[in-house]
Amino acid sequence: MKKLIFGFILSAGLLNAQDAELLTLPEAITYALEHKAEAEKARLDIRKGDAQIAEVKSNAYPNISFNSSTSYNPLLQESVLPGEIFGAPGQQVKVAFGQKWTSSNMVQLTQNLFNQSVFVGLKAARSTKEFYLINAKLTEEQIIEKVANAYFQVYQADQMLTNAKSNLEITNQTIKVIKGLYDAGLARKIDYDRVVVARNNVSSGVKQLENTVDLAENALKFMIGMPMNEEIELPEQTFEPSLLPDRSADFAARTEIQLVNKQIELLEWQKKATEAEYYPTVALSANYGFLGQGDKMPWWNGKENGVFWSDMASVGLNIRVPIFNGFATKSRVELNMIEIEKAQADLRETQLGLDLQHKNAVTELDNNMTMISMQEENVVLADQVLSNTRSNYQHGLATLNDILDAERDLTEAKNNLTKAKLDYKLAEIDLLKSQGKLKTLTDIN
To answer: I need a surface site. Which of 78, 189, 257, 346 has the fewest CB within 10 A?
Structure first.
């Protein structure tokens, strides 16, 4: 009894595990933005910007350090002095200076009072974080575009499979018709054999398309960062083309333009940081510590053991005024200006490319809508031609070749309609991208 219950529970679990998850386009995009490595690295770059700001700020804070140095001098340096000093006129006396042990322990504080490069660095660090924020937004848009393209590729493969299965049913119907005529002595054996061969070819195509669907689904899973063992299913209505009445575009709002503008801003700050080399710097320094000297290790000995300790302190103001460095700073400023001009040229090229992208997207959208209408009409006509050809064949007015040609024409028309719908959806994505509205894909129901 326990084994029976356990088997039932295990079977139920396996069935639930095999249930396919209905995956809409917004859900696929949201999943990708949460799990793809590119999105995660973009978020880490934002944290990196915060760390860079904190690093630059540290230059404006006091810097406190402790330095300890202890040395042992087995041989003291001797100096030769006149003997008169020691009451021995006419003689030279060697005198050793210092102690065998010395220990210096010092706390040092430095504080920048004026440093133009620090002020410029703080502003540049904030712009760097803004750059990372814009880059993260661009990364999200790129992920959305890739996921949407992969998503509709699954639809195309699935629709092609549906078309092949429909063609297989049509071929089976043709086999039934010819089989009935052959049994009645009204058709030849070779005609029946030919439609069976055609049916086998179509069946082989179905198997190949089933594999294509699996590959497309795996590509989509990889694109969104989903494990390959997850089963997914796409809703049917999503592949239908929708109208996008708004064809306008504001290129200034495009993330690509914002990113290049921010790059130019960062290059401007880099130039100002170089120009900061012309400014003087002022810093305050303060030191306080203890010096121990004697014949023994100073750390744990005092005056009673022949070790003498004394404290010392100093306060200083350090001023550095640049005067001439061989025009090195001027040359670096010129190099910075060249980089700015190159970035401005990139900005003009980016604006031109975005305008081209928008114009092409609008043209492709209109052309593909026309193609969909034409292919829908072709499917209806091809279906009528196949029906009429079958009827004519039964009355001896058409050949088997006519039937097979009509079946191929119907399959081709359906596949062309599927491709036209996919091209329209891809053109929709291109138009939304050119308008800077790819995020709206996450709102589709």
So the answer is: 189
